Amino acid sequence: MTNEEIEKKIDENSNNPTKMWELINFYIKKSKNEQNNEALFYAYRYASTTSKYPSNLKYADSALDIGKKSKVKKILLDAYLNRGNINMSEEFYQKALDDVLIANRLSQESGNEYIFNKTIYYIAQNKIYLGQYEDANKELLVCLKFFKDNLQNKTSLGKNYQVYYIYSLMSLIDSNTKLGKFTQNKDRLKEAFDYLEKNKLTQYIPYFISSEGTDAYYSKDYNTAISKLSEAIRLYDDQWQHNTEVYYLGLSYWYTGKQKLAVKYLEEIDKHYNKTKKLDPQFRAAYEILIKYYNSTGNTAKQLEYINKLMFLDRSYEKNYKYLYKRIVKEYDTKKLVAEKNRIESKLKNQRIIFVGIFIFFLLGFSLFGLKIQKEKQNYKKRFEEIIAQRDHVKVEEEQSTLDSTVYNDQQKFDYDFYNKIPGLNPIFVENILNQLEIFENENKFLDSQISQKSVSENFGTNSTYFSKIINTYKGKNFALYISDLRLDYIIDHLKNDVKYINMDVKELASIAGFSSTENFSDNFRRKFDLKPSVFIKMMKDKL
Question: I want to staple 99 with a disulfide (CB 3.0 to 4.6 A). Which of 84, 251, 321, 345 is the partner?
Fold first, then answer.
């Protein structure tokens, strides 16, 4: 039996642990007898991915030792990536990122596109952990295209394009959900189900049914979410705990008014934490709801238990967040463009340029470009009119809000329910912070380029954690987006009402608004308005 045949049989017996481990042990013994380090590495890698903690890490270390002894770069970088994957599955995110970044660097040096794209996938998972869904989304689109384009390649020893195509697609759908890209997910989910059915990969179907359920939850279609997530749990036929489904079932039941049932599901998340002492940050809200529930029932013992756990988790998340963010920015994001440029240039040196049909290609290209420019102009005009109309509408709302505020102050009525949206925070404290934010906005203090979440929270007499919760709950966005949007609205209003601003260049406008750079201003402008600032200014001039 060849090594490729052994691996195929191991994959086929993934739902039969006894048979699977017979094959893995046979693979290890055979590789040692043949003194085949490459095969032994892949055998240990199988052992690491199919065993439980702490055996999985011991096998991952053995695989890395073989990788170092072999002195074959492709085995070594794959070994680092494998151990990073195992550490990530056990939620040892710092150690995982260390290994993944080493694998990323080695894969660029060796030109190993397969491992390089696997590292992109795992770096995206770290960004998802940090809540950087937009960045993760971009990374996932890159590696998904690579694995999809190579699906027709026969799986060779140590390579499985199919599995990482499925993983990347699954993760992209999840990040789309978090970003509210539900329309895009319809096509992605159809692509997934069609591929799985065509290739008889039924074991993955429940995962995408679960994705449908999560999508429904974020669309606030809680009944569909309950149906899909329950179906996924019924269909799973593996050894893993499916906490994601349990968590979103709990949230769905909570928002449909079935609080007792919701608490039962969310307490399963707590049981997992008690057992493993690890918890994915996305499940944090489970504790906020449990605190709120036991507060309403008067069970102060339970309430205090969950408050203590949440505070401990927050300290752990903050520590991991700082470490992972610095490492990704320093060792990956800032080097990625240069590395990609060098990689492409190196690849182009070894390719022959094909000239046949170049005239037709450029003719069609210019025609399509012309149509694209025309369509873009139409879209620019539409977006411009929408921005103007939107700001006019906001101005009317602000005036009405001022009138309402006057009436509110005259009546001196405290809206307890409105200020009691955050478990564990005193409503009067929340009102005080929101009043300070209103003054902060009215006095245009957001124009200070040196402003930070830490400095504002300290000026308001609170800490960064509480301040962040208030911003996210009452402003519907994180602090960075909140400040950027205030600055952008300030610039839009001045461009509309003061002709001297229209004659300024983008760099001057960025500086006035408090942005750290022209690029930062332009990127945020495109994010919020789907239009370049230079185009908006030109259209304002044309309107005069």
Answer: 84
Instruction: Report the alpha-carbon distance of residue 502 to residue 496 in Å, rounded.
Output: 8
3-state secondary structure of 57: helix
**45-96 residue pLDDT tens:** 999 988 988 899 999 999 999 988 887 888 888 899 889 888 877 877 778 8
Q: Which amino acid is at 246?
A: V
pLDDT, tens digit (0-9, with 9 covering 90-100), for 385-418: 888 877 666 665 655 655 555 555 555 567 888 8
Per 3-state DSSP, the chain is made up of helix, strand and coil in percentages (nearest 5) of 80, 0, 20
Q: Which tokens sit at 370?
A: 């012309």
For residue 203, the 8-state DSSP code is G
On whether the CB atoms of residues 88 and 96 are closer than 8 A, the answer is yes
Query: What global pTM score does this model have?
Result: 0.53
Please say if the pLDDT value at position 238 is more than 80.
no
**298 dihedral zone (left: phi>0; alpha: psi -120 to 50; beta):** left
User: Could you report how far apart the first and last alpha carbons of the chain are, in Å?
Assistant: 79
3-state SS assignment for residue 369: helix
Whole-number Å distance between alpha carbons of 285 and 358: 57
C-alpha 35/C-alpha 20 separation (Å) is 22
CA distance 409 to 420: 19
Supply the Cα-derived Rg of the chain in whole angstroms: 27
Q: Mapped to the 3 state alphabet, what secondary structure does 258-301 carry?
A: CHHHHHHHHHHHHHHHHHHCCCCHHHCHHHHHHHHHHHHHCCHH
How many Cβ atoms sit within 10 Å of the Cβ of residue 446?
20
| 428, 430, 432, 434 alpha-carbon torsion, rounded to 10° | -140
Task: Assess whether the previous peptide bond of 54 is cis (omega < 30° from 0).
Answer: yes
Q: 37: number of CA atoms within 13 Å, CB side?
A: 15
Cα–Cα distance measured from residue 36 to residue 303, given in angstroms and rounded to the nearest whole number: 57
Specify whether the CB–CB gap between 427 and 420 falls below 8 A: yes
Q: Which of 319, 284, 291 is nearest to 306 (CA)?
A: 291
Q: Are 73 and 111 in contact (CB under 8 A)?
A: no
Phi, psi of 516 (to 5 degrees): -70, -25
Q: What is the pLDDT of residue 321?
A: 56
- Cβ(171)–Cβ(141) under 8 Å? no
Dist CA 525 CA 503 (whole Å): 18
Q: Is 354 helix (H, G, I), strand (E, B) or coil?
A: coil
> What is the rounded distance in angstroms from the CA atom of residue 210 to the CA atom of residue 228?
6
Cα dihedral angle (313, 217, 231, 242), rounded to 10 degrees?
-10
DSSP state letter for 204:
G
Burial of 392 (0-12, 13-18, 19+ CB in 10 A): exposed
